[in-house]
Design a protein that fits this description.
about 100 residues; 3 helices
Amino acid sequence: MDVGAASKQETDLIRLLTPLGKLYTAPHSSRVVLECMECLGGAGYMEDATDLPAMLRTNIVHNNIFLSLFSLSLSLSLSLSLSLSLLSLTHISCR
């Protein structure tokens, strides 16, 4: 979908669903790489035979970074929306 042709509501939905999709697929990718290593047997665990052990290590690190950033952004967005709600309530009560 071309973002320029999307409506405001569609753009907001894309911005919401993209990190949620990454959040869902990230843990599964580590399991897939591990399953590939097991399918290859002993050769799958050897650094000389395949790049799978390095992929698994990199994948685990990236998953941890992504999950920590996702939880940080979620908590920031929740605190921002809460503070905006309080600000609007304060503005209404001051009238």
